Amino acid sequence: MRTIVLLLACTLGVSAGAASPTGVWQTTEQTGAAASSPSGIPEVPALADAQRLFYDARYDAAAAAALELRAADPEDLAAYELRTSALLFQIKSTLANAGDKDKAFKQCAPCQPVMTAFLGDTAQGQKLARARLEADAHDEAALFFLGKLDLNYVWMQLGTLGRKTGFNEYREARRSLQTVLRRNPRHVRARVAHAWIEYIVDTEMPFGTKWLLGGGDRKRALRTVQEAAAADTDFFSHAEAIFALWDLQVRHKTVSAAVGTARMIARDFPDNPEVARFLQAHAAVP
Question: Which residue range forms the structural domain that includes residue 227?
Answer without folding.
Answer: 43-281
